């Protein structure tokens, strides 16, 4: 029974992670917020279920870990890009303001 619970939760985590990838690609902030809540719920349930000793779940657990790490890396890349864009926007704004004062 415990193995089935863990398997179901890890499959849910994989599904949520796939939907997060899609939402990131579509810049869908509302979907990301909803998925963050779903992810949190699955993680709480995994924590409550405790550690599984079923070695047959190892590949599934590794796949989930790898997919989650991939999404975390993509979120980091997008965050960095948004930061760069904000810096460029501020620089352009300052240049425009300087020209407006001198013009």
Keywords:
103 residues; mainly alpha; 3 helices; 87% helix; rod-shaped
Report how far apart the termini are: 75 Å
Task: Report strand %.
Answer: under 5%
Poorly predicted regions: none
Count of strand segments: 0
SS-based class:
mainly alpha
Fraction of residues in helix? over 70%
What's the order of the H and E elements? HHH
Report the radius of gyration as a whole number of Å.
21 Å
Biggest sheet details: none
Number of helices: 3
Average pLDDT over all residues: 93
Model description:
With 103 residues, the chain is mostly helical. 87% of the residues lie in helices and 0% in strands. The chain has helices at 2-25, 29-49, 58-102. Helix 1 runs antiparallel to helix 2 and helix 1 (2-25) runs parallel beside helix 3. The protein is rod-shaped, with a radius of gyration of 21 Å.
What secondary-structure arrangement, pairings included, does this model have?
Elements: H1 2-25, H2 29-49, H3 58-102
Helix pairs in contact: 1-2, 1-3
Short account of what is shown:
About 85% of the residues lie in helices and about 0% in strands. It has helices at about 1-25, 30-50, 60-100.
């Amino acid at each position: 029974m415990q193995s089935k619970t863990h398997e179901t939760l890890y499959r849910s985590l994989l599904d949520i992670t796939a939907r997060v990838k899609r939402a990131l690609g579509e810049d869908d902030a509302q979907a990301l917020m909803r998925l963050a809540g779903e992810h949190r719920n699955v993680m709480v349930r995994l924590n409550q279920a405790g550690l599984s000793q079923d070695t047959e779940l190892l590949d599934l657990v590794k796949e989930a870990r790898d997919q989650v790490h991939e999404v975390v890396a993509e979120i980091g890349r997008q965050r960095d890009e948004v930061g760069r864009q904000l810096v460029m926007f501020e620089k352009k704004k300052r240049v425009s303001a300087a020209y407006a004062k001198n013009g």
